[in-house]
Design a protein that fits this description.
The complex is a heterodimer of chains A (525) and B (1078). Chain A is 30% helix and 28% strand. By secondary structure, chain A is of the alpha+beta class. The longest helix of chain A is centred in the middle third of the chain and has 22 residues. With 1078 residues, chain B is of the alpha/beta class. In chain B, helix 21 packs across helix 34 and helix 28 crosses helix 32. Classes of the chains: A alpha+beta (525), B alpha/beta (1078). Chains A and B meet through helix 3, helix 8, helix 10, strand 16 and strand 17 of A and helix 7, helix 8, helix 17, helix 19 and helix 39 of B.
Chain lengths: 525, 1078
């Protein structure tokens, strides 16, 4: 859609271009190329694998000064500077960062547009005088971005496209806008590579060269798009800009004319806020994972209560119940004093949540019941106190399982099923650390005949083994070298004369160690 | 004392069970022998690819005469869930069943896989002894029923905890099916120390890191070979399982030595014996060459050759090669071909027309081609035009059938790059770190990752992870990775090939290959015929065609005038761009020193610029002797040995060993090698890069020579050279054939430069130089080169005019980047009705798509219509196809009148730049000429002036970078730059590289300051002190960004992997391109 400018107020646009956006984002976020890697002066490049070769996608100022440019292979770049720092291109992060940069501009103008992948345009008509005119505004922006470490090139023009083109292609500062636009290279039309090259081969190297030819001739050769781009650049035609939409934060508030102190009123207010939140969440298809309730007392003091859930939720009742649990566990009970005059609810963490539809047989409800229980116990006892065991893929028995906070380990883990008819190979419970035992056994790999544990002698009646488990050589320095891989364990399942079963191992083969020790690692039920 | 128990490990995998076994076949055999086993059985997963190597190792430890037995077979892995079965043939017949079974599985799967089902085995189980694994009662029962008395059940004690119970279960199961138990380790490696390596291989196979691999790794290191006493102890509850292993071995009555090879009968007519038929054909051929009867010398040589061929029974081999060559020549048009190799340099091959080289005239000793005592198979490689080799390959398949003809395999080994990448990944290193390490491996010459490379990459060798990577990479480097097809070595048999060796599908359609490589084939005395592709033969054939077509000359490979003075004069100048083998920069620098004056000089010339002679330090002594700067002396042994014993060996090369054969003879004559040792050395040289076994011969050779009184220094250099040959063996027999092609191509370049350049352009990609340099060289030799034009050009480049000196070279439409052959055909078809008169005329008559017209216009191909490039592209672009379909031209020949766009005229520099952008060369000028004034102002002289400057003069030269190379040991960088007057070869020492790395590596236009070094022969080098990047000037030429990005294929810095790229069979280069050195 084209909007013809009515001509009443001349439009003004400020274009910002971040030529090193990706690299500078990384510098800012991770200190890459800086102190963190210990290579303060190393150039930074960002790469992607394209057809099997790692190619540069973005560079920082240092790398650029060394002659590195996007498109180059990493091997070539390394030939220029072997010590360069390399990171993966992360387009999502860049997009997100550009969005944040654009949001910083909202202070200068409410109408801000993102020009992917690395530009922002501000509609500054009528607002520039607040910042000392265009120049003052540009100076402020320059300073603000320099302060966070972003390089930026800026230009103003009467069209958004013109401003971006000047920022990207014109020698700065621009004195005469019209003249500057006409001397821009044809590259500024942002046509495809083929058309750009053809224009230049035809001797039409600047926007002015193209503009001074009949539009019909240009359209016949390079399409109507070329003419439209030209007209927009020169301000003969306006394209509306699409300002940044800002989602409202999930922040809800209830103010009271008279401070409330009654438990019931406060609870009703909670519920009310949660319902409002639920409504908003449903519209956005989200569920909350973290809820923060703040109660402002009329004397200025405030209480903050936060709860977390294992699964995203927007059910007011269950969230309210969690808050109840939370309040119950407070060391100091809530003291409303003379009452609260304001209560706010904030949801800092949300996740997508579909529209729930309970099935007729109530399965979903059952899963929900366990999740509810986990949420409630975790809220009451602390997230680290309620754990769920997850299997880890390792031969080393004590590393084959891992306790995780239940609220984070949502799904019950899948455990390998032992072969049918086999006795359990491992005890359910392992001694940590294994306890040394004195053993009489046959060399080199015979089972224990008898062993002494906790000063008590056990005669072995039955045994099976050894189950030989070598150590994880790759965790040891130099473990790949012969004889350096660590001690191997020989495990035996033994039963003493009284029918009790033990899991005992010898720590080391006789080839590895002349006098290997024996340990009890667990008891079978 | 109790006699040690007798035991043989019968389920042993090797690293040919790719990414599962962690020891070489030879290691497994040697270790088993060392442990005192009764024997070993080698069985890899659905393959017998590694058994020949095991067989060779077995010969080393006694072979058929010794007490140690070797069983060879395969571990059959099924797709239908049946547990693996290890199969060993008991007889030759059984071997054939096994290979047919594997062939069946291979041919029904895609390349590299084998799909087998239990019924397949039951169908092919004759004479196979089977060891079943797993506890599948029904499968075991079916096997036992199919092969009563020939099935065993494997029992293992792998320390899994329940070993004893599993053994009892196995005993019950075996008893139920009536089969005996057989004790085994199911070994995956020879020694428990291989566990880290095996874990890494597992990670590579599973595509995980060590940290993630978990229980995909084995829990312990128990899958190694265990000594008989230990096996007896483990199986003390079931001693009969241990005893069963030797009983099993005693049932096997087959070794790979039983494989009898028979040549195909096809080439021999009914009623003839191969030897008689060969002699008949040879005599006929001799009669054609000597109509007046054979001279006495020839007759004597021929008789001796016939005697040897009969004695060795090789007649069929020569006939088979002859048959292929005959077929190639019988085609219309015939395919140019030429044989080479030791046996090709025989009078028999000369008379059969396999080679154009007369061995008597060239004084090639026939004894070189075959020797009675050495077990060297005859070697004939035949080169064909590279564009048409596939026709020959398909002929062979058709003539002999796929069950009788197959291409040999090439075992692809881990190379430093792939090893670093894959091992690094398994260790959890990022792509970036491994890429950094891999990128510093410049040449890949050695088998070891040198520490300096690691340090160069900015990594600390002391860092434990880097040290670990290095340790493991060094181990993996010698490992086979997968099988691929050989470039062109065919194995042909009289009986079924698939009863000799399994056959696989190749990745290319219509190709099948066998699972043994050339070393295996050698070891078993099978014969292979190498059918290779050579680009230069295509170019020579095209030159001959052009000369015939333009009635200049009618030539064949054999009839090119010999020993032509002008040709040698040209070569002495180092004027050899475009020729075969002597065109590289190092060769060009060498030619003025060698001053070739006869064909044998070229034989030496092609052999001398190679790693062997260079590493052996033989080049300079040879040159000094040749130029009479040093006396020709022959190293001699102490009395009582014959002081002249090396005269015969080294006589032709002035006492300096240059060829592989000489190194071999040296070992026999001077170091007193036995035939067996010499044979071992030959094999070691052939496979040096894979197994690094040459060093086994170092002491033998050096001590052998020193003992017999030779100078230790000379002996050491001989060894160094042999090591060099191992990397790129270059025998005289090949040099002979190549020298002839080098001569023929030089002769054509000298006498018919237009036709030769035209043929070279039409045979691209090939050779060392880009079309721009070839065209420029032709212009320098007075050839009139004409631009691409819609009214004159065909797809290929063509010749215009008539008569030798009036021929002009017209560039073809194929020179335009992105132009398609179909468009060119349409265009030339439409042009038959008369030349085009206008752009509309072309559009209407040729109906070319808009994209084609644009490419023509951009390439300035409308010159004959008096269109400038700019006007043409403006007019052609009018009416994009989406708005007005092309046929609209027909309806509206006159598009509506349009105002003149008043386009400015295109300045010459821009024309040149656009030429380079569209056709990669320009006939209008050189970009440097437009910068000449500026450069002169800075005191920069032209390349021609630099080459003419006096020795030692300080100069500044600038030019477009053609090539950058950092050969061999990497202590110097070679840079070639070009301007409108010529090229300059510069050399920069590596120590000076770091401070100007950016300029050296990145510059497209380079200004070099340095001093001129001129040899007495006039070879000029610029010894660079300083390199300045002036690329920005190029943009000034035409205000264009992407000028001259392309460099020639020799630019190793921008194509660092180039030297590895010739691996693909379709663009095979017979020998790796020589590396520069000085």
């Amino acid at each position: 859609m084209t909007v013809i400018d009515a001509g009443s107020v001349p439009r003004r646009y400020l274009a910002l271009w971040f030529p090193l956006l990706s690299a500078e984002r990384l510098h800012i976020h991770e200190g890459a190329g800086g102190g963190a890697t210990g290579q303060a002066d190393a150039p930074l490049v960002l790469v992607t694998r394209i057809k099997g070769a790692l190619r540069l996608r973005a560079v920082d100022a240092h790398a650029r000064a060394l002659g590195m440019a996007p498109g180059q292979t990493l091997a070539d770049a390394r030939a220029l500077h072997p010590g360069l720092v390399v990171a993966d291109m992360d387009e999502n992060a860049d997009r997100h960062w550009l969005q944040q940069l654009a949001e910083r501009c909202i202070g200068w103008s409410p109408r801000v547009t993102i020009v992917p992948p690395d530009g922002v345009t501000l509609d500054i008509a009528g607002s520039e005088h607040l910042f000392g005119g265009e120049a003052g505004l540009a100076a402020q922006a320059d300073e603000a971005f320099a302060a966070i470490g972003m390089s930026v090139r800026m230009a103003t023009a009467s069209t958004a496209q013109g401003a971006q083109a000047l920022a990207r292609h014109a020698p700065l500062p621009v004195v005469d806008e019209r003249q500057a636009l006409r001397t821009l290279p044809v590259l500024a039309l942002e046509l495809d590579e083929d058309a750009t090259l053809a224009l230049r081969r035809a001797g039409l190297k600047t926007i002015g060269d193209v503009a001074s030819r009949p539009a019909a001739s240009i359209a016949a050769r390079f399409g109507a798009n070329a003419v439209t781009a030209l007209r927009r650049l020169l301000g003969d035609e306006h394209a509306p800009i699409d300002p940044l939409a800002q989602p409202e934060p999930l922040h809800f508030e209830q103010r009271f004319a008279e401070p409330v102190a009654l438990q019931a009123s406060i609870a009703a207010c909670f519920l009310d806020l949660l319902r409002k939140a639920a409504h908003m969440l449903e519209q956005r298809g989200l569920g909350g994972r973290r809820f923060v309730l703040t109660l402002f007392r009329s004397d200025g003091a405030h209480h903050r209560l936060a709860i977390e859930t294992g699964l995203p939720t927007r059910d007011p009742a269950s969230v309210l119940r969690l808050f109840d649990e939370r309040i119950d566990t407070l060391a100091d009970p809530l003291d409303p004093g003379f009452g609260y005059d304001r209560i706010t609810l904030f949801l800092p963490v949300t996740e997508p949540l579909g529209h729930g539809q309970p099935t007729l047989d109530g399965d979903e409800r059952d899963a929900g019941v366990l999740a509810d229980l986990v949420d409630r116990l975790s809220t009451r006892l602390g997230t680290d106190s309620l754990c769920r065991l997850a299997p880890r893929d390792s031969h080393i028995p004590e590393q084959a399982q891992l306790p995780l906070p239940a609220i984070h380990a949502r799904e019950p883990a899948r455990w390998p099923t032992p072969p049918a008819g086999e006795p359990p190979l491992r005890p359910l419970f392992l001694l940590d650390p294994p306890q040394p035992v004195e053993v009489i056994a046959e060399v080199p790999d015979g089972p224990p005949h008898r062993f002494r544990w906790r000063r008590k002698l056990h005669e072995v009646r039955l045994y099976e083994g050894p189950e030989r488990i070598a150590s994880e050589w790759w965790r040891r320095k130099g473990g790949e070298l012969p004889g350096n891989g660590g001690l191997t364990r020989d495990y035996y399942r033994v039963e003493d004369v009284r029918g009790r079963r033990y899991w005992i191992f010898r720590h080391g083969l006789y080839e590895e160690k002349s006098d290997p020790g024996w340990y009890l690692h667990g008891l079978f039920a | 004392m109790i006699a040690p128990p007798r035991f043989a490990e019968l389920v042993a995998a090797t690293n040919y069970s790719f990414l599962r076994g962690a020891s070489h076949p030879a290691q497994m055999v040697a270790r088993a022998h060392h442990m005192g086993m009764a024997g070993i059985g080698i069985a890899d997963r659905n393959t017998v690819a590694g058994v020949v190597r095991a067989h060779m190792a077995w010969r080393e430890v006694g072979g058929p005469g010794g007490a140690f037995r070797l069983a060879v077979g395969a571990r059959l892995v099924f797709a239908d869930g049946t547990p693996d079965v290890v199969a060993y043939p008991a007889t030759r017949h059984g071997w054939g069943r096994l290979t047919r079974l594997l062939t069946l599985g291979n041919r029904r799967a895609k390349k590299g896989e084998c799909t087998l089902h239990l019924p397949d085995l039951l169908d092919h189980a004759d004479d196979l002894l089977l060891i079943a694994t797993g506890h599948d009662q029904s499968a075991l029962a079916r096997l036992a029923k199919a092969r009563p008395g020939a099935v065993w059940l494997a029992a293992t004690m792998q320390r899994h905890g329940a070993d004893a119970r599993r053994l009892v279960q196995a005993q019950r199961l075996a008893a139920a099916c009536g089969v005996p138990l057989l004790a085994t380790c199911d070994a995956l490696y020879d020694h428990p120390d291989a566990r880290p390596l095996h874990d890494v291989l597992t990670c590579i196979r599973e595509g995980v890191t060590l940290a993630e691999a978990g229980r995909r790794l084995l829990a312990n290191a128990e899958r190694h070979l265990k000594p008989p006493a230990e096996m007896a102890r483990l199986f003390r509850a079931c001693p009969q399982a241990v005893a069963a292993t030797t009983e099993f071995l005693s049932r096997i009555d087959f070794t790979l030595d039983d494989l009898r090879y028979e040549y195909p009968r096809e080439p021999v007519p009914e009623g003839w014996q191969p030897q008689d038929w060969l002699e008949h054909l040879v005599r006929q051929g001799g009669l054609a060459l000597f109509p007046d009867g054979l001279p006495e010398r020839y007759r004597a040589v021929l008789d001796e050759e016939f005697r040897l061929i009969r004695y060795k029974n090789y007649a069929s081999y020569f006939l088979t090669v002859h048959d292929i060559v005959r077929h190639a020549r019988s085609l219309e048009p015939p395919i140019l071909c030429q044989g080479r190799g030791s046996a090709a340099n025989s009078l028999v091959c000369y008379f059969l027309g396999i080679t154009p080289i007369d061995p008597v005239r060239e004084k090639l000793l026939f004894s070189r081609f075959l020797s009675e005592e050495r077990n060297e198979p005859p070697d004939i490689d035949v080169d064909f035009e590279h564009e048409r080799r596939e026709e020959i390959m398909q002929y062979i398949y058709t003539r002999y059938g796929r069950e009788r003809a197959g291409i040999a395999a090439t075992v692809i080994h881990y190379r430093p790059r792939s090893a670093i990448r894959e091992v690094g990944k398994a260790l959890g290193l990022t792509d970036d770190v491994t890429a950094r390490l891999a990128s510093t491996i410049w040449g890949n010459w050695g088998d070891d990752v040198p520490e300096t490379r690691v340090v160069q990459a900015g990594l600390d060798i002391a860092n434990p992870i880097v040290a670990r990577l290095k340790t493991l990479v060094d181990q993996v480097l010698t490992f086979p990775r997968h099988l691929s097809q050989h470039v062109g070595g065919f194995v042909l048999t009289e009986t079924r090939l698939d009863e000799l060796v399994p056959i696989h599908n190749a990745a290319m359609p219509d190709r099948t290959f066998i699972e043994w490589d050339k070393d295996d084939i050698d070891a078993l005395d099978l014969m292979k015929v190498d059918v290779l592709a050579l680009g230069m033969l295509t170019a020579i054939r095209k030159t001959f065609d052009l000369l015939r077509q333009h009635e200049v000359a009618d030539l064949t490979l054999a009839s090119v005038p010999r020993e032509d003075k002008d040709t040698y004069t040209m070569l002495k100048r180092g004027d050899s761009i475009g020729t075969f083998q002597v065109e590289s920069r190092a060769q060009i620098a060498m030619l003025p020193r060698m001053k070739p004056a006869e064909l044998y000089d070229l034989v030496i010339q092609v052999a001398i610029v190679r790693p062997g002679p260079i590493q052996g330090g033989m080049v300079h002594p040879y040159l000094r002797r040749r130029n009479r700067e040093e006396a020709v002396v022959f190293p001699s042994p102490a009395p009582p040995h014959d002081p002249d014993e090396l005269h015969e060996v080294l006589g032709k090369t002035l006492g300096v060993p240059l060829f592989q054969e000489q190194a071999m003879k040296l070992a026999i004559v001077a170091a007193n090698f036995t035939p067996a040792q010499a044979d071992g050395l030959r094999r070691a040289m052939a496979t040096f890069r894979h197994h690094g076994t040459v060093h086994n011969y170092e002491d033998l050779l050096v001590d052998g020579m020193v003992t017999r009184g030779y100078d230790r220094d000379f002996a050491e250099r001989c060894y160094q050279q042999i090591k060099g040959f191992g990397e790129y063996g270059f025998p005289e027999s090949h040099a002979q054939a190549f020298a002839w092609l080098a001569y023929v191509s030089s002769w054509l370049k000298c006498h018919h430069p237009a036709a030769f350049t035209c043929a070279l352009l039409n045979s691209q990609p090939m050779g060392f130089y880009a079309p721009a340099q070839l065209v420029r060289d032709a212009q320098d030799h007075g050839v009139d080169v004409r631009a691409v034009d819609i009214n004159a050009s065909h797809w290929d480049s063509t010749l215009e005019g008539a008569g030798k000196d009036a021929l002009a070279l017209r560039l073809g439409l194929s020179r335009i980047d992105g132009f398609r052959k179909g468009w060119a055909d349409t265009l030339t078809q439409a042009r038959r009705d008369g030349l085009f008169a206008s752009i509309e005329d072309i559009a209407r008559r040729a109906a070319l798509p808009a994209a084609a017209l644009r490419k023509l216009a951009d390439a300035d191909a409308f010159g004959s219509l008096d269109y400038t490039r700019r006007d043409a592209l403006w007019d052609v672009r009018r009416t994009p196809p989406a708005q007005l379909p092309l046929f609209a031209f027909a309806d509206a020949p006159e598009l509506g009148r349009e105002a003149d766009a008043r386009l400015p005229a295109m300045p010459l520099p821009e024309e040149v730049v656009a030429d380079y952008q569209t056709t990669r060369l320009s006939l209008k000028g050189h970009p440097m000429q437009f910068l000449r004034d500026t450069l002169t102002g800075e005191g920069v002289i032209a390349c021609a002036a630099a080459n003419a400057a006096t020795d030692g003069r300080k100069v500044r030269v600038a030019g477009v970078v053609l090539t950058r190379q950092r050969p061999g040991k990497g202590n110097a960088v070679f840079i070639t730059i070009e301007d409108e007057t010529g090229i300059v070869n510069a050399l920069l020492w590596s120590r000076d590289l770091d401070k100007q790395r950016r300029a050296v590596m990145a510059a497209r236009l380079m200004l070099i300051e340095g001093s001129i070094q001129k040899s007495s022969e006039g070879v000029v080098h610029l010894m660079a002190d300083r390199v300045i990047d002036r690329t920005a000037m190029l943009d000034r030429v035409a205000d264009q960004q992407h000028l001259l990005r392309q460099t020639s294929r020799g630019d190793e810095i921008h194509h660092p992997q180039r030297s590895r790229a010739h691996g693909h069979p379709r663009d095979v280069r017979i020998l790796p391109r020589s590396r520069d050195f000085h």
